[in-house]
């Protein structure tokens, strides 16, 4: 699904990623953990195509395609979803309107039939129910007045509606209480646990991994993967910190 080879990237002339190599096969969830400043969010932004990040070396293949040959909207239409640590607010635009336009723009790019208003409402209600979210909240402006947990639940609803092949989730557990953490974990499992889908889950802490059991855990330090292992590695990092693993 995702193959990263010797990836180097800079922002404002500062080197952040320094030879990162990683493969996420179809049907697997891989977690990336690491200290602040290691390059975790930079990796997510580079994969998503955020402006300002320059790739200076290396390659990324997504579902058999050269990722860097695709514009950000083309990456989304090809099946990539990027979840943000801090979802943005968009005053004046209802979540339902935002989600319907987003979905139908992707369907147009794939030459698929657009969903009618009624079809989309049914889909949105189904996905909101799956995440334990009141569908009435989707009538509100995007993330305006939402708590941290509500923003992350709404983002999981968005992911369910978009139904991506690959989800890149950047610290989606940030600021969540126990109930919201469980809901997000359940959302990831219900939407993305599929032989044809994959997840790259970026997190500081092991706690989300209690609900989302990754096949692999990777330690990112100084812009590259320095260690990989099974889920037990996350528990080791929680006990001992990153200094030993990143040495």
Automatic annotation (TrEMBL):
Keyword check for Membrane = no
User: What is the top-level taxon of the source organism?
Assistant: Bacteria
GO terms (molecular function) for this protein are: ATP binding; ATP hydrolysis activity
* Gene3D superfamilies xrefs: P-loop containing nucleotide triphosphate hydrolases
Domain ABC transporter stretches: 2-247
Keywords attached to this entry: ATP-binding, Nucleotide-binding
Per the record, the similarity remark reads: Belongs to the ABC transporter superfamily. Ycf16 family.
Q: Which PANTHER family match?
A: ABC TRANSPORTER I FAMILY MEMBER 6, CHLOROPLASTIC (PTHR43204)
Q: What is this protein called?
A: Fe-S cluster assembly ATPase SufC
* Species: Sphingomonas xanthus
* Gene behind the chain: sufC
């Amino acid at each position: 699904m995702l193959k990263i080879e010797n990836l180097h990237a800079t922002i404002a002339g500062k080197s952040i990623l320094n030879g990162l190599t990683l493969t996420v096969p179809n049907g697997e969830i891989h977690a990336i953990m690491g200290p602040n400043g290691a390059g975790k969010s930079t990796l997510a932004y580079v994969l998503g195509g955020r402006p300002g990040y320059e790739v200076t070396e290396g390659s990324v293949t997504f579902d058999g395609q050269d990722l860097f040959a695709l514009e950000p909207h083309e990456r989304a239409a090809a099946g990539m979803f990027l979840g943000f640590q801090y979802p943005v607010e968009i005053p004046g635009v209802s979540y339902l309107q935002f989600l319907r336009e987003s979905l139908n723009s992707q369907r147009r790019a794939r030459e698929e039939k657009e969903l009618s208003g009624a079809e989309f409402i049914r889909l949105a209600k189904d996905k909101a129910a799956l995440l334990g979210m009141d569908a009435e909240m989707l009538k509100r402006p995007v993330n305006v007045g939402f708590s941290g947990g509500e923003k992350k639940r709404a983002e999981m609803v968005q992911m369910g509606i978009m139904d991506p092949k690959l989800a890149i989730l950047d610290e989606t557990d940030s600021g969540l209480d126990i109930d919201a953490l469980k809901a997000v974990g359940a959302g990831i499992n219900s939407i993305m646990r599929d032989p044809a889908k994959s997840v790259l889950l970026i997190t500081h802490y092991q706690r989300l991994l209690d609900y989302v059991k990754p096949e692999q855990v990777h330690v990112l330090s100084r812009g590259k993967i320095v260690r990989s292992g099974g889920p037990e590695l996350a528990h080791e990092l929680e006990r001992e910190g990153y200094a030993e693993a990143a040495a």
